[in-house]
Backbone:
């Protein structure tokens, strides 16, 4: 964990150069079977490690994240590094700048090891749609890592890196965290600047954090959060200054999140921790979130609509391959050809599905029936959570209906894959913070995740409550 | 509910070339997804205002003062597939 690594570096139990060299050695040896990384940043990382060692020699104080190896989801820009969004259409694109979150990690001395694998343009729940191959679950290589931040989750779970950044639009940080047995945090919408995050659905996207402990997540969150002049939707999140204890917590359990379709072992694990909480004096209150069944359908109208707009820029004019070579391959002789053929050839199936669906729900004659209606439903979903948080401090649910599934198991029917997000998507629609904590393992040794949801801007208190839960759970 | 012709038309609007085989798959996929999202029809939305924002911030503006660009124009344009001087190069618009 971050504090332990910092202590070891200061005590010179090992040098930062040794740490980072070993990091790359391990990745080179073991990532072939996981496929967590798309690009690696060895030379610069080693230079930065050397600078950290020199700082330690001079007995200077270290910054909060100094020397800590990070993985960055490949839809977040790091200057000078290839950024692909998991897509062929950006396979040669080099990031011209650092995302704000990256600037902040660098400022605190974090060392970026490489860019992690993801579903193409963050569209997926299994990391099977990446143009750079699927990611394998470190706990069972024949199972998916989850997605879309599959590479980030698998890299942390494999101990390649201490922590990673991901993005979460319907659960893309929390679900792979749950599948891979690591902590995955989705902050309040706007808490972390989206400047430098390749946009998928702008009213839903957030940058999230994956790590081995809540304490690590919190350290990173404090370093990268905050109002940013380059992201007009960004907000400052207040610090929670009170005391938190099992006895002064009221935790809501929504029955709609415990219905059919949820694995028996997952239900049993969650029920067990609920009993444990009750023993500690926590008040458990059953609540109704009646809009639950409308969340995922609502999302699958609003999100594609935003996707169709956000991905219009991938026209091979500002980003893409040289069209001289395309001209020969695909027969491009006009601007129209350039758009149609490069987008047709270089965007994957899931991306095309969502662009077309978005185009449909925004088109004349369908806008009212679909997009407008979904926006109204989104209002009542937000109201539902607002009402709930008048009665309870936090809401506890399983993170996912099942543990990690096998490759190809859910790819035949798009809706089957979408249902993986059924318990996580609501937090994105409402813009509220949520975290997945590793809880236990099922009879196949696959991790089960617990989700804790908080109200808007209550991130700090949510993290405090999560630390309490983490101690109680004592996941090994 | 959704026809292959509609899929072709959507492809035109989205500037996406779709092969004949893809049209069949996409029609079936979108059919399934639209079926799934149609559950929203059971809600009476007449009196509900559309969602506007989670953070209730409106029109965040900055002062109209000249600032240095984060990235030089040339730096961005040079990353394009084809560029010349400070312009993007594209194939002819009209054939």
Residues:
């Amino acid at each position: 964990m971050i504090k332990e690594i910092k202590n070891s570096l200061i005590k010179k139990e090992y040098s930062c150069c040794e740490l980072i060299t070993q990091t790359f050695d391990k990745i080179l040896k073991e990532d072939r079977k996981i496929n967590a990384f798309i690009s690696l940043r060895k030379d610069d990382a080693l230079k930065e490690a050397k600078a950290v060692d020199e700082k330690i020699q001079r007995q200077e104080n270290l910054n909060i994240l100094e020397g800590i190896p990070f993985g960055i989801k490949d839809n977040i820009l790091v200057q000078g590094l290839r950024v692909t969004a998991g897509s062929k259409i950006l396979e040669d694109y080099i990031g011209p700048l650092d995302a704000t979150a990256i600037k902040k990690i660098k400022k605190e001395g974090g060392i970026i090891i490489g860019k992690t694998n993801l579903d193409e343009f963050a569209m997926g729940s299994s990391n099977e749609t990446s143009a750079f191959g699927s990611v394998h679950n470190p706990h069972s290589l024949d199972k998916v890592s989850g997605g879309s931040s599959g590479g980030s989750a698998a890299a942390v779970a494999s101990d390649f890196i201490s922590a990673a950044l991901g993005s979460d639009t319907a659960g893309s940080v929390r679900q792979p965290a749950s599948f891979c047995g690591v902590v995955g945090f989705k902050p309040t919408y706007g808490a972390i600047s989206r400047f430098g995050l390749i946009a998928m659905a702008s009213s839903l996207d957030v940058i999230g954090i994956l790590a081995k402990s809540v304490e690590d997540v919190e350290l990173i969150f404090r370093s990268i959060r905050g109002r940013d002049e380059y992201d007009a939707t960004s907000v400052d999140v207040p610090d929670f200054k009170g005391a938190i204890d099992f006895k002064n917590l009221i935790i809501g359990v929504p029955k709609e999140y415990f219905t059919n379709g949820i694995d028996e072992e997952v239900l049993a694990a969650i029920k067990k921790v609920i009993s444990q909480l009750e023993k500690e004096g926590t008040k458990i209150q059953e609540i109704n979130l009646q809009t639950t069944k409308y969340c995922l359908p609502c999302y699958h109208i609003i999100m594609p609509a935003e996707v169709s707009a956000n991905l219009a820029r991938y026209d091979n004019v500002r980003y893409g391959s040289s069209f001289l070579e395309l001209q020969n391959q695909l027969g491009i002789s006009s601007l129209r050809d350039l758009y149609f053929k490069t987008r047709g050839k270089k965007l994957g199936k899931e991306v095309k599905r969502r662009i077309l669906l978005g185009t449909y729900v925004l088109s004349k004659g369908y806008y009212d029936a679909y997009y407008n209606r979904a926006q109204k439903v989104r209002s009542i979903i937000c109201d539902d959570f607002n009402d709930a948080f008048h009665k309870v401090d936090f809401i506890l649910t399983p993170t996912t209906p099942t543990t990690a599934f096998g490759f190809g198991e859910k790819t035949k029917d798009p809706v089957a894959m979408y249902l993986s997000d059924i318990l996580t998507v609501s937090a994105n629609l409402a813009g509220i913070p949520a975290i997945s904590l590793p809880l236990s393992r099922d009879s196949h040794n696959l991790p089960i995740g617990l989700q804790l949801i908080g109200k808007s801007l209550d991130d700090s208190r949510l993290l405090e409550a999560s630390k309490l839960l983490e101690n109680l759970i004592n996941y090994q | 509910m959704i026809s292959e012709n509609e899929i072709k038309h959507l492809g035109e609007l989205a500037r996406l070339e779709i092969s004949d085989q893809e049209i069949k798959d996409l029609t079936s996929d979108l059919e399934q997804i639209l079926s799934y999202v149609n559950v929203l029809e059971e809600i009476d939305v007449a009196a509900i205002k559309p969602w506007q924002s989670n953070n209730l911030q409106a029109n965040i503006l900055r002062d109209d003062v000249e600032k240095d660009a984060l990235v030089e124009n040339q730096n961005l344009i040079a990353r394009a597939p084809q560029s010349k001087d400070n312009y993007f190069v594209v194939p002819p618009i009209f054939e």
Remarks:
- Chain B has three helices and two strands.
- Chain B touches chain A through 52 residues (CB under 8 Å).
- The mean pLDDT of chain B is 90.
